Amino acid sequence: MIIGTGPGAAADISARALEALQSADVIVGYKTYIDLIQDIIQEKQVISTAMTREKERCEAAIEQAAAGYRVAVVSSGDPGVYGMAGLILELLESTGQLKTIPVQIIPGITSATASAARLGAPLMHDFAVISLSDLLTPWETIEKRLEAAAMADFVIVLYNPASKKRDWQIKKAREICLQHKTPTTPVGIVKNAAREDEEIYITDLSGMLDYPIDMLTTVIVGNCSTRRIGEFIITPRGYAL
After folding, report:
1. Which residues contact 142 (CB under 8 A, 6 or more apart)?
2. CA distances (Å), origin 33, targets 107, 215, 239
3. pLDDT value at 52 more than 90
4. Contact status, residue 125 vs residue 237, Cβ threshold 8 Å
5. Mean of pLDDT values over 145-149
């Protein structure tokens, strides 16, 4: 089972995901995500590794499943959105185990939708989700996608916008957006969505870099119709009022 545990809060884990976690013999996941569900998994066997060891974790999970254990691979958000589902399917295919090890993929709430809900309704119309991490994707590709999304006036959700070692990409993304969007375009910033230390900011393209942005932050840049109403951001769907 590859389980999406949502953005972080136990209340955001679906009933199906909760049941799957409770039925598993072995839990496999990144240490931070395991810590978030410790109250649920309690004394179950855990295989945990650090960041950037995703392949190692998935190989360990497949090994346990091949040995007959019921394995739950934990993925924050949704396992099919920058998560572990694709990597596990690829590994099963490459090792010829795709037909011998049954796979269930259990969806979860993404950071994009969790953050959008905190901000109001910024994703009511077409939107694009783009990760600014160039660890697995060349920056040239990311830049082309940013350019296309901004030019087409998509609402743009930015994942992995910055880290301690990688802080220039968010500045470049803003620069690209400003080529096609006005400086007053609303921007929502949600750090640690749905976790105890959650922070929420509403600003615009001109001022977005004045706020804390890191790897645990989701940034939502509006389209030409997005506007601020009270303490919320909304992108109108187009209904006649």
Report:
1. 130, 131, 132, 134, 169
2. 15, 14, 40
3. no
4. yes
5. 98
